[in-house]
Amino acid sequence: MDELHTLALDLTWSWDPRIRALFAALDPDLWEKSAHNPAALLARLGREGVERALDQRSVQDALQTARAAYHEHKDRRQPFLDARAPLLVGYFSLEFGLTEALPIYSGGLGILAGDHLKAASDLGIPLVGVGLLYRQGFGHQRIDSDGGQYEVYPENNFNEMPLVRVRRADGSPLDVDCPLGRRTVQVALWRAQVGRVALFLLDTDLEANPPELRTITDRLYVPEPERRLPQEIVLGIGGMRALRAMGVEANVFHMNEGHGFLVAIERMRELRRGRQITLEEARLVARAGFVFTTHTPVAAGSDYFEPGLVYELLNPYLVEVGIGFDRFMDLGRKSPGDPRELLCTTYVGLRMADSAVGVSRLHGAVSRRLWKDAWPGLPESQVPIGSVTNGVHMPSWVAPEVAELLERHVAPEWWDLDVEDPRWTGVESIPDEELWQCHRLLRHRLVALTRERADGQGLDPDALTIGFSRRFAPYKRANLILSDRRRLAALLSQRERPLQFIFAGKAHPADQAGKAIVSEVVGLARHEARVAFVEDYDIEVARALVQGADVWLNNPRRFLEASGTSGMKAGANGVLNLSVLDGWWDEGYRPTAGWAIPSGATMDRPATDDAAEADALYRLLERDVAPLYYDRGPAGVPHGWVAMMRESIRHVGARFSARRMLLDYFWDCYAPAARRVEQLRLLPDWGG
Q1: Would you give the distance in Å from CA 526 to the centre of its chain?
Q2: 10 Å Cβ neighbour count for 309?
Q3: What is the mean pLDDT of the chain?
Q4: Burial class (CB in 10 A: 0-12, 13-18, 19+), 113
Q5: Is residue 465 packed enough to be buried (19+ CB in 10 Å), middle (13-18) or exposed (0-12)?
Q6: Is the dihedral of CA 313, 316, 318, 321 positive or negative?
Q7: Rounded alpha-carbon distances, angstroms, from residue 646 to 248, 411, 619
Q8: Three-state SS for 499?
Q9: What are the Cα distances from residue 572, in Å, to 10, 149, 548?
Q10: Among candidates 194, 388, 392, which has minimal Cα distance to 292?
Q11: What is the pLDDT of residues 331-370, one digit of tens each?
């Protein structure tokens, strides 16, 4: 039983099907009812139920296989990564998307953070994650009779989640205190194990706290600033104090977006405590060890806080740090010295980090223009914001059936190959018929899930299937394909070349324009048999879509999509991207692996012509995509299409993996930061 608990509490099972197979074997029906959550499964089975299951030979065999897989991950030899200085990274993010069993994520930012931890585990990079443990998380989407989105917030049962409470040596729970204005909030610490990486989660829902403080960590992305700022105080200040209370001596700190901006200020306080250094010296030393990733391509995507709210919740703490209120506010202002200007967390992150990056090459360029005022007088080309293009954790997102082909034709650990490894050419040896039958199976599975979770009875499992799933923000234009209903109806009604759409995605609870687009798409799905909308988009739905669709549609307004990792997940499965040249696709596009929707937008003239881009999208579907898909050989295999699938798998799988992303972060950001910190530590008269 103890061994099973160890396997259930280590999220390696979320990307290794051999370990998941063990839990499915214990009780197949209960495995489905527990939503594929091993912690919930064991809690509901109880000791007697587990012992009965273990008496079965098939379960014993599955346990032996899972045990070997677990130790394979724990004991795997890591590549030669020498930072040439002590290194332990503290990675701070407001959300982490690791598995449906740990619903503390909203969308792309959280999934990226989860993939970051998984790849760090694969590579053996010394890193710990820090986030918040939400009692309710992000709203679960519901669609009313009029097609409108509303949210429900069921409470998470921490006892049935893959978590453990962090405890002291004597077994008592470990809590930390976090300042909040003139009050103190007590913060509980939880631990999730992500392979070889620990994720520490902070929780204020403790009886020791008054009711208004217990709810700080109730929901993700609360829209009210007076509720959001306390969350970011707990993440930044509380998170740093949690690491130190556990003896975790991180020396490099990575802020995944501006939500963790107070990590930098707490680091300054820590450096000044007991040392005779000035505030400016503390700022420069703290900066040396900080990495900041900006994910937003628009200034409005950052968090902003009124001076009065910042004063109320942070000034007593700032006095302790030794930084004046106005000086602190100026760290977050476009125009320092303007008392009316709000504090922007992105400006704080940029000014407090020696290493700042965007999440694609194009986004790096956009960010240099957007945030150049943080370096007044510096030419835009010299603004010190680089880029590390996002990547996805291939073992988590590539279908097991596709992975099995890659294991046979490329390498047993294909996901661990370098970008230029010649073994990637093995993708070319996968027979057309075999790859096509594999993909047909995944499409059939997607259609079955859609029929189960949506009104998708009109879908044809063999028709050209176009997937669109992401946050329903207006700039992502989920309704662009709806622009010309006559042309869309003609595409949907063709008998010889049938085409269908599956949509999924949520609008932020406070985004009324996004909710209007949800309603528009739902309305179409209720009247068109070949269009479906899957309610309550989550990791399970995302996985089915990126594995089973034929085409991945992404049509944001250019320069507004920072990266767009869903297209990477799709492309690595052989799903062909049909996208505007924005985010990752601007550097990932090649005509042998997908299509580009032309846009007239430029950096200097970013306005888009929605009508022209919709027309281009229709023409691509009518003249290029559908004809190629239905151009079949004698055995019914579309050989031209399959050739593009192979190119997509090879190109995206090699170049847009989280493994490559982590190696970029290691060599370009983490290792240099560690060396800067060590050089400062070794200076004469430096005390630590």
Answers
A1: 31
A2: 17
A3: 96
A4: buried
A5: buried
A6: negative
A7: 44, 15, 24
A8: strand
A9: 26, 31, 12
A10: 388
A11: 999 999 999 999 999 999 999 999 999 999 999 999 999 9
Give strand pairing partners of 681: none
User: Cβ–Cβ contacts within 10 Å for residue 281, how many?
Assistant: 16
Beta-carbon contacts of residue 46 (< 8 Å; ≥ 6 apart): none
Residue-wise pLDDT for 179-238, tens only, equals 999 999 999 999 999 999 999 999 999 999 999 999 999 999 999 999 999 999 999 999
Backbone angles phi, psi at 408, to 5 degrees: -80, -35
Is the Cβ–Cβ distance between 346 and 331 less than 8 Å?
no
- Name the region of 451 (left: φ>0; alpha: ψ -120 to 50; beta: rest): alpha
Distance, CA of 6 to CA of 9 (rounded, Å): 5
Alpha carbons 635 and 638: distance in angstroms, whole number? 9
Q: Tell me how far apart the alpha carbons of residues 132 and 136 are, in angstroms, rounded to a whole number.
A: 11
Write out pLDDT tens, residues 86-131.
999 999 999 999 999 999 999 899 999 999 999 999 999 999 999 9
Strand intervals (E) in 359-472: 386-387, 464-469
Q: Which tokens sit at 600?
A: 């007239």
Instruction: Name the 3-class secondary structure at 2.
Output: helix
Give tens-digit pLDDT for 59-89.
Answer: 999 999 999 999 999 998 877 899 999 999 9
> What pTM was computed for the model?
0.97
Write down the residue that tokens 């999440």 correspond to: 359
SS3 string, 149-193, reads EEEECCCCCHHHCCCEECECCCCCECEEEEEECCEEEEEEEEEEE
Handedness of CA 288, 291, 297, 301 (dihedral sign): negative
User: What pLDDT, in 10s, does the model give residues 508-538?
Assistant: 999 999 999 999 999 999 999 999 999 999 9
Task: Report d(CA 221, CA 104) in Å as an integer.
Answer: 11
Length of the chain measured in residues: 688
Exposed / middle / buried, residue 623 (Cβ in 10 Å: 0-12, 13-18, 19+): exposed
Element (H, E) at 320: helix 307-321
Q: For residue 576, give Cα distances in angstroms to 375, 402, 557, 625.
A: 41, 15, 20, 10
Query: CA nearest 589: which of 545, 637, 635, 554?
Result: 554
Q: What are the residues whose beta carbons fall under 8 Å from the beta carbon of 80, sequence distance 6 or more? A: none
